[in-house]
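Sanity check

After download, print the first record. It should look like this:
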Amino acid sequence: MKKISILGSTGSIGTQALDLLKNNNQFEVDYLYVDSNHKLLYEQIMDFRPKFACINNYESYKKLKELNKSNTQLIYGDKEVLQFITSRKVDLALNAIVGIAGLKPTLGILKSGTKLLALANKESLVMAGEIVMSESKTQNIKILPVDSEHSAIWQCLAGEKHSEIKKIILTASGGPFRNLTKDKFKNITIKDALNHPNWDMGNKITIDSATMMNKGFEVIETKWLFNINAQDIDILVHPQSIIHSLVEFKDTSIKAQLGIPDMKIPINYALNYPSHTNLELDSLDLSEISSLTFEKPDLLKFKCIQLAHDSIESGGTSPSVLNIANDISVGLFLDKKISFLDIPKLIELCLEKHNYISKPNLDEIINQIDWTQNFIDSNLKDI
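Expected structure tokens:
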């Protein structure tokens, strides 16, 4: 039986992964990791009986400790949890932590001797792609992409030669505002932005889809995951979300991965790689789809895409600041402290003003978190 760990087990990806594991007798849940949702974590402990459960928030830890009547050992605190992750070897670790908090656990997993890392945390590659991929190579640990787009690319490239790739094409649904005119963006509410037409995701990722920053991040991730130049990665808006990504080869032939828009499909493939195991989902019936349409993204409406491309060209600390500023800005929007249009404004301001470092180490990348937070706090009133 394979040992698996789920980091971010109470989030959207984590809960779906555990749903898939309920009827999978090939895995034993070794440990779970959450930030603060002690109630759901306790339910997961009772369902899966992991050997360990890690939690960051102290108040949540105290409440979980009172509830816990199982043999699961509880681990609390940022430092203690990270030390545990770095020392705990499993067969497969799924990092589904949302946001910047997922970076250090990714590096901890890579140092642990764990065999496979299923990576759903975008920030690990956006902020520190070169460091993460170098560590993966050094430790000989394979990174399995969980995002639907990167899973699609991964499957399209199976059995293909890297030298024959001409272009990678990431598809995007266009989010809830694809057909909204730019002059109406000033009236966008939180409810509007969370109303994704196709995908059921967590709040932060759904907002990233609404601004299309998620596609900018995915270009950066694609660059690192598949060792391809950013200029050879295109974005194509595909509202039906049936084709999840495409790869064009030097002979102009194109391979695409199709499927219904359900995150359980790429999660299941990462969990059971290299097998496509059975899923109790409705099959895609192409005869029922009237058409598949495509269009170029509107960079004037969705400025976050251009900001991401600019950060890739700049390199160094720019992608880190892009990521951190976006994380903070999305949080401010969800807290009703800034408007939807203020998100790209804040990010652009941070990119312009930060102290650029061309070859940052991990500490220099992490230091951008405090700088960006302090800068936004100081300039928020001027936005």
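If your output differs, re-run the checksum step. Summary of this record's structure: The chain has a mean pLDDT of 94.
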